Structure formats: structure tokens, C-alpha cells
């Protein structure tokens, strides 16, 4: 093998799956947390196959995240509210 592994860490990540419906669109997202991204969540769109690191403060820059995640313009305000709710300052905690 020609690759040199310089670091490796295994962790258990809380991952949440969301299927969201707006009046005209469906969105399938996964949101996962890791200790490696300074409090940002890994948000992946199943439709676009793209992932972004996001936190609540990133919601003001919708021109960056909305297009990449495939969020239609008419749904951006709803997604800002949704992300502010689910992108908590601390990761999701297991409840059971």
C-alpha cells in the first residue's frame, strides 16, 4: 500500500435521518456529529449526495448551503428554522 495512515480514530457518532416535505418538494437528510469538526454537524443530502459541515451560525449564509444541499429557494426560510432547531450547540444525546 502506498498510502501512509497518519491518524485514525474510531468513534460512535449520533446520526439522525430526516425526511422533510414542503408543499412542492421532498428532502432526505442525514445529520451526524463528530468530535473532529469543532461543533459543526455533518449534513448530507441524499438527493444531491453532497455533504456540508454546518452549525447554527451558518444559517445566515444560505447562498452557500442551500444550493449545495439542493434546497429550493422557496424552502430556504423553513430550512433556516429547521437547522436552527436541530443543529444544537451540543450534539444530540442518546435518550434510551
How would you describe what is shown here?
By secondary structure, the chain is of the alpha+beta class. The protein is 20% helix and 25% strand. It is built from 2 helices and 4 strands, in the order ββββαα. The chain has helices at 62-69, 76-86; strands spanning 15-21, 26-33, 41-45, 51-54. It has a 4-stranded antiparallel β-sheet, with helices on one face. A hairpin with a 4-residue loop joins strand 1 and strand 2. It is elongated, with a radius of gyration of 15 Å. The relative contact order is 0.19.
Describe what is shown at a glance:
The protein is 20% helix and 25% strand.
Task: Describe this protein with a few key phrases.
alpha+beta; 25% strand; four-stranded antiparallel sheet; 96 residues
Total strands: 4
Lateral strand order in the biggest sheet:
1-2-3-4
Envelope shape: elongated
Computed CA radius of gyration, to the nearest angstrom = 15 Å
Write the layout of secondary structure elements.
Layout: E1 15-21, E2 26-33, E3 41-45, E4 51-54, H1 62-69, H2 76-86
Antiparallel strand pairs: 1-2, 2-3, 3-4
Amino acid at each position: 500500500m502506498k498510502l501512509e495512515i497518519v491518524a485514525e480514530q474510531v468513534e460512535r457518532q449520533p446520526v439522525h435521518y430526516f425526511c422533510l416535505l414542503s408543499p412542492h418538494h421532498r428532502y432526505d437528510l442525514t445529520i451526524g456529529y463528530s468530535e473532529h469538526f469543532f461543533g459543526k454537524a455533518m449534513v448530507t443530502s441524499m438527493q444531491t449526495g453532497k455533504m456540508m459541515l454546518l452549525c447554527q451560525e451558518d444559517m445566515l449564509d444560505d447562498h452557500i448551503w442551500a444550493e449545495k444541499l439542493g434546497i429550493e429557494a422557496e424552502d430556504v426560510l423553513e430550512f433556516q428554522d429547521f437547522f436552527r432547531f436541530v443543529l444544537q450547540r451540543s450534539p444530540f444525546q442518546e435518550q434510551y
